[in-house]
Amino acid sequence: MAKLKQNFLYTSIAVGDNEVALLFRDERFQRVLKPGKYRVLHLGNNTEIQVFDTQDIFPNDELLNKLARENTQIAELFDEIITDAAEVVNIYLDNQMLGVVPPDERLLMWKGVGDLRVERFDLDGSLEVDHQVLSKIKARGLNQANKLLTRETLKRQPLLTTQVPEKHVGILYQDGELKRKLQPGVYAFWQLNNDLRVSNYDLRSRTLEVSGQEILTKDRVSIRINLTANLKVVDPIMAAQQVDKLDEYLYKSMQLALREAVGTKTLDQLLEDKLYVNDTVKALVADEFTQVGVELARVGVKDIILPGEIRTILNQVVEAQKAAEANVIKRREETAATRSLNNTAKMMENNPTLLRLKELEALEKVSEKVDRISVYGGLDGLMKGTVQLS
């Protein structure tokens, strides 16, 4: 650090190896004091010496900038870095990235601090930054607004970085205009002069859920339907050009189609034809989805939820129908049994042997329920005393 000694005639100063001093008299620049020792004569006590540390590579001093533009002696102390309105510069010192200079900037850098190299990028051409430059900027932590080498504070980061996942496609917008399609990978773009945005589109088949839609049927019954659709983005460029928020657009289109399909049918018709809603909704939106680059594979109703009182009434109707069906079946079986008995009686009337076999069958059923039988009068007595058929 420079050392000053003063008396009434002279100021003695020792300028260090990493310093430069400027001598002023009557607020006017006189000369540069490079590293060394000096004795400066006071003239009217209006002598001033300003000392600058050259280790501060980019001196952000308005006076120095002004003097460097006006005085060649001071200008020779600096390397001047200037960017135009459509240019950004990466600065390397001793082959190490030092910083990023934004467009329309003028910086001074002390000479002799190292091997200076600049890398210029035209912002009117391609804005993409290659991976090698990106890795250097990220490694040095330079993708921050407050890290830019500038005389003024900027709020925007120099780079927009984005990653397009596998099975996706990215769409790059520049100032609201669609620029290009991005395949899966990591990308970086200069955004100091432009408003950049990347939208990713999933190219895989996926499910869109339309849930909890309260809809009035034709007979004014309020029902809730949960709908699901399987779809796939087949043309992301078309999708990006036609609609702003694709998922929101698809969801609302399915909503409207579902309301249109349900509103033209009564509740009984909807419950009887379970495929009507699926087929109708798909027919209503398939062409519309195709026009925005989306392929609709299948539409299905997950469930139909009825109001509590309607559900109770339907349960009663179903219960009554089932009871009536059971009663019809019971009467049919009774009629069949009576007809069978009548046929059997007619056959036994004209066939004594068949009658005798029927008697033996009856005897067998009776004997199964008796633990002990005492027989008197032989088998003939048993048959006549136990079973009598007329």
TrEMBL record:
Signal peptide: none annotated. Its main location: membrane. Pfam families: Band_7 (PF01145). It is a single-pass membrane protein. InterPro entries: Band-7_stomatin-like (IPR043202), Band_7 (IPR001107), Band_7/SPFH_dom_sf (IPR036013), Stomatin_HflK_fam (IPR001972). Residues 159-318 form the Band domain. It is found in: Membrane. SUPFAM superfamilies: Band 7/SPFH domain (SSF117892). Belongs to the band 7/mec-2 family. This is Slipin family protein. It comes from Bacterioplanoides pacificum. The lineage of its organism: Bacteria, Pseudomonadati, Pseudomonadota, Gammaproteobacteria, Oceanospirillales.
